[in-house]
Amino acid sequence: MADRYAVIGHPVAHSKSPWIHAEFARQTRQDLDYGRIEAPLDGFARTLAEFRAAGGRGANITLPFKDQAFAYCDGAVTERALAVGVVNTLVFDGGKVQGDNTDGVGLLRDITVNLGRAIAGKRVLLMGAGGAAQGVLAPLLAAHPGRLMVANRTAEKARVLAQRYGASAGGGYDALRGEQFDLLINATSAGLDDAAPPLPAGVFAPGALGYDMDYGRDTPFLALARAAGAAAHDGSGMLVEQAAESFQLWRGLRPDTAPVLAALRRR
Ligand code: NDP
């Protein structure tokens, strides 16, 4: 029987992870079965226990269970997952559950390798202070930006996040007046409301990149970036890169992400 993996979340019907991992498995000739499991909001641990009992070898964890997944680990947790306090990848190894977080490295690889953009020395703006922003802030800081500001609709959350991880500053969008950035990363879910974060005019530096972690559709933030003359990219590359990192953890093989990303964009 093929080894079993799954993405577990709520909701999870929209997840592209099963398709991505099926492509990786085909490319690397791995015999595995990757499904999607919607866990009840009050039943994450129960769902995981059932999946493990049914032979599950590993799982990707998505909204809203990433912090519960962190608490669920009783085996080794990688340093990068410890740094962010949330887990998106579980490995079931014998009786133990190991945890990792591949979102940060996925974002960094997409920006620096796929899009060929440097982070070191650059002025970076991270929008949002939810799980996604929390997961990528420490890895972004480790890439040595010249300056990194966090902005959020609820300003206090950005202040707390910036202080906890040692970012340059954190606050509301008003505080960005007069600032300019080379890399602007939207880690909010504003796109779901068909809105963009309320950025003041002039924040896109010449040659800037506007990056939306949202994926698979054009968002008001991407339109804003283009209107300001910046390059605009969605989070499809991050999604594929974080998946490749999970795949490597489970199977010991790194798939080639470029053809899978190209095929995902054509879908
Ligand atoms: P959360 O619900 O944890 O956080 C949502 C954030 O968005 C909060 O900071 C919230 O601000 C802000 N926000 C919501 N609506 C608006 C609005 N209308 N205007 C301004 N700010 C708003 O979500 P996550 O952090 O988990 O996810 C955020 C996004 O990142 C999602 O779109 C998700 O799909 C994407 N993502 C993509 C990944 C990828 O691989 N490409 C991986 C992980 C996430 P406030 O605090 O004021 O409520």
Task: Please characterize this protein's 3D structure.
With 267 residues, the protein is an alpha/beta fold. Helix content is 39%, strand content 23%. The chain has ten helices and eleven strands. It has helices spanning 17-28, 44-53, 66-72, 79-84, 103-114, 131-142, 155-165, 220-227, 236-251, 257-266, and strands at residues 3-9, 32-38, 56-61, 89-93, 96-100, 123-127, 147-151, 169-171, 181-186, 204-212, 231-233. A six-stranded parallel sheet has the order 8-7-6-9-10-11, with helices on both faces. It has a five-stranded mixed sheet with strand order 2-1-3-4-5, sandwiched between helices. Helix 1 (17-28) crosses helix 9 (236-251), helix 5 (103-114) crosses helix 9 and helix 9 crosses helix 10. It is globular. Bound molecules: NADPH dihydro-nicotinamide-adenine-dinucleotide phosphate (NDP). The site of NADPH dihydro-nicotinamide-adenine-dinucleotide phosphate (NDP) has 28 residues, from helix 5, helix 6 and helix 9.
